[in-house]
Amino acid sequence: MKNQFLIVSTIVIASFALVSMTVKDFEIQDPWEVPAKYEKMQNPHVGDADADQVGRMLYKEHCASCHGTKGEGDGKKADTVDTEVPDFTDGTLSEQSDGSLYYKTFIGRDDMPGFQEKISDEKQQWLIVNYIRTLGS
Q1: Strands (DSSP E) along the chain, which ranges?
Q2: Torsion angles phi and psi, residue 13, rounded to 5
Q3: Which of 47, 49, 106, 109 is 20 to 30 Å apart from 26, CA to CA?
Q4: Residues 70, 76, 80, CA angle at the centre, nearest 5°?
Q5: Residue closest to 43 by CA, chosen among 133, 113, 119
């Protein structure tokens, strides 16, 4: 009886240890504080026909590795960051202004790098915002 208790206890402890090593523990980030300047920015390229082709190409090149090809937060690098990668398809994009998405994409913070230097063309920046919007619809 004593041996059975010892064996069961060892199995339970080993199971908890194994589970704790395999579960990703994401840091909880504070909500984004988007400055009013950006929150109120108007997208000068809303409805631009290039959004689908150019925006998609730029998204694939710079964003899909973390956010996934369909924007579900399941890119191949998503598990390498300390914070949870957002799912663009969950409906929360519609609650955000274009300026807010612009700020988050091109200024960034923490694990989300700013892409202002890598994508310096302002039209291309807005086309990515336009394309990201299509993932949420």
Answers
A1: none
A2: -65, -45
A3: 106
A4: 125
A5: 133
Burial class for 97, CB neighbours closer than 10 Å (0-12, 13-18, 19+): middle
Q: Is 34 left (phi over 0), alpha (psi -120 to 50) or beta?
A: beta
pLDDT of 32: 86
pLDDT value at residue 24: 45
- What pTM, to 2 d.p., does this model score? 0.76
CATH ID of 33-135, from 3.40.980.20, 3.40.50.300, 3.40.50.720, 1.10.760.10:
1.10.760.10
Of 7 and 21, the structure prediction assigns the larger pLDDT to: 7
